[in-house]
Amino acid sequence: MTLLSMMPDQRHWRAWVLVWFIPALWAVNFLCARLAPGVVDPHVLALGRWAIAGLLLAGWARQEIWAERQQIWRDRWRYLVLGSLGMLVCGAWVYWGARTTTAMNIALIYATAPVLIVWGSAIWLGESMRFKQVLGVALALLGVVHVVVKGNWSALSQFQWVQGDWFIMAATLSWAAYALLQKKWTSSLSATARLACICAGGVVTLVPFALWEWVQPQSPAWTWLASALVLAVALVPGIGAYWIYGWAQKTLGASRTSMTLYLGPLWGALVSWGVLGETLGWHHAMGCLMILPGVALVVQPAQAAKSA
Q1: Nearest by Cα to 229 from 66, 93, 88, 45
Q2: Most buried residue among 14, 147, 231, 270 by CB atoms closer than 10 A?
Q3: CB 244 within 8 A of CB 93
Q4: Rg (CA), the chain
Q5: Around Cβ 210, how many Cβ atoms within 10 Å?
Q6: What's the pLDDT tens digit per position in 21-69?
Q7: What does the alpha-carbon distance between residue 236 and residue 25 come to, in Å, rounded to a whole number?
Q8: What span, in angstroms and rounded, lies between the C-alpha atoms of 92 and 103?
Q9: Residue 16: helix, strand or coil by DSSP?
């Protein structure tokens, strides 16, 4: 049985299970971003990521893409917009911002993305939000902040806005627009074929920026490590996370799916602990006790929400 052939109830439960793992896949992107400076430039890394992902996805969905080629061409400007938002700004610009800002700033700014998507879903897409779902958003947001400041809320007074934060803010706004437009611009394409088309739009917008970086005198020489980083971000956070996100959003809605972003700090802490040897603290446990129930309140399957 495939995902597309499931009954509605089965699709909701499968989507509900899968969305919890999206931030785990994105955590690989953060690890690669920490290794990228001096190895591969931001736009070159993003271009390689989405070119590889797009080619693989297009290969899997080649028959559908060929059959729907006329409709895809008519919607080409939509794919260019989505590619610019999801692959250019949310891809390369995050790598730029991470060079000059702190991890705390990135996490705090990105914590506003689900709130923006929830508001946009209610106002623009007409998705309903019950009181307990609003409560879940607030609870998860508090949990994220608790993890980011390591339980020391006075650290918020030390927040300083730097140049890199503008890139992160742009990426946050861009992701919210990407998620909302994907839901607004409905498509008959499968999740695989649609993501392949969006990747194509992203590659078109990334090419001139990547070429400009490539010809700069300070551009690093290509190495096996650069190839490994490009391949890793293409397969795991590229195909894996974006595909699940797009498919789950069709099933659960934009606001519910966006809440998985709040799981990022928890997955990031686990990955850093297991891969980089960083320590876990009590602030992670307290944040977990707020984030997990908060996300569960919002992303619960629609059938369960109706019976609640």
Answers
A1: 45
A2: 147
A3: no
A4: 19
A5: 19
A6: 777 787 777 778 778 888 999 999 999 999 999 999 999 999 999 999 9
A7: 6
A8: 17
A9: helix
Q: Which residue has the tokens 């974006």?
A: 242
238/276 Cα distance (integer angstroms): 22
Are 87 and 199 a contacting pair, CB within 8 Å?
yes
- What does the pLDDT read at residue 247? 84
Work out the number of other CB atoms within 10 angstroms of the CB of residue 185.
13
Q: Is 45 exposed, middle or buried (0-12, 13-18, 19+ CB in 10 A)?
A: buried
Q: Which residue has the tokens 């919002």?
A: 298
The alpha carbon torsion through 164, 167, 169, 170 (nearest 10 deg) reads: 170
235-252 per-position pLDDT tens digit = 988 888 888 888 888 777
Which residue in 3, 5, 16, 7 sits closest to 305, CA to CA? 16
Q: In this predicted model, what pLDDT tens digit does every residue of 160-171 receive, in sequence order?
A: 777 777 888 888
Helix or strand or coil: residue 137? helix
Q: Retrieve residue 4's tokens.
A: 């597309």
Considering the entire predicted model, what is its pTM? Answer: 0.75
Q: How far apart are CA 282 and CA 86, in angstroms?
A: 34
Please report, as a single letter, which amino acid is at residue 222. W
Of 298 and 122, the one with more pLDDT: 122
* Residues in contact with 158: Cβ distance below 8 Å, sequence separation at least 6, in sequence order: none
Please give the Cα distance from 33 to 54 (Å, whole number).
20
pLDDT band at 207 (very low <50, low <70, confident <90, very high): very high
